[in-house]
Amino acid sequence: MGLLEKYTDETLLISLRQGDVKAFDELYHRYAKKLMAFSLTFFTDQHLAEEAVQEIFVRIWERRKKLDESKSFKSYLFQSVKFYMYNHIRDRKKECCLETAATEQIMVAQDPEASLAYQELEELALEMIGRLPKVQQEVFTLNKLKGLNSDQIALQMNLSKRTIEHHLYLASKSLKKGLLHHPSFSLLIFTGIYFF
After folding, report:
1. Alpha-carbon gap, residue 168 to 114, rounded angstroms
2. Short-list 134, 135, 137, CA closest to 163
3. How many CB atoms lie within 10 A of CB 172?
4. Number of Cβ within a 10 Å radius of residue 175
5. Structure pTM?
6. CA angle 170, 172, 174 (to 5 degrees)
7. Cα atoms in the Cβ-side hemisphere of radius 13 Å centred on 68
8. How far is CA 107 from the centre of its chain?
9. What's the CA angle centered on 120, arms 192 and 82, to 5 degrees?
10. H or E, element range at 37
11. Which of 21, 18, 19, 23 is CA-nearest to residue 5?
């Protein structure tokens, strides 16, 4: 960006805090490509990585008056990508479902580290299913592992369909809570293996 290239990040941040668009543009051109490359280490989806970078710079402009020029702008940017990724995972948690996990095993097989993480999650899930209350455990196993629907389970267990659905909800909620906070789940997110 011509003359502004010679300025330090600190000087540009001072100008940016005062609303200088050219200072913002210089910082953007200085870091956007690097931030995009870093973002792609978390998001294998190009569109999602681009969205993360754009969103971070939009927030920088919106919160420019709160920026602290005494702190490393570069570190701030890279930390922002991590926070964006964590927030993205948090926002998508409600969509996480175990029934789609089996289809991801094909993708995982190509990455040894992801494969190990997937195996750890699978073992944890089975262990957690074993700790569920007996009725929840049976309902969940019949539905998710044996493929029976709520009507079939209700008939087999001599319970109402609504009761079956309630037990499925409680079991799924309990398992999701345990799995989503496990480090292996984060690794699979980093490698682009999604459970939603």
Report:
1. 28
2. 135
3. 18
4. 21
5. 0.47
6. 70
7. 5
8. 17
9. 40
10. helix 21-39
11. 23
Hey, what are 171's tokens?
């079991």
Is 150 in contact with 143 (CB distance < 8 Å)?
yes
CB neighbours of 114 closer than 8 A, spacing ≥ 6? 107, 108, 187, 188, 191, 193
Within 10 angstroms of residue 142's Cβ, the number of other Cβ atoms is 19
User: What token pair was written down for 43?
Assistant: 């998001």
Residue indicated by tokens 């345990």 = 178
Please report where in the chains the tokens 């480090």 appear, as a residue. Answer: 183
End-to-end C-alpha distance for the chain, whole angstroms: 42
Give per-residue pLDDT as tens, 19-72.
999 999 999 999 988 888 878 776 667 888 888 889 899 989 998 998 888 888
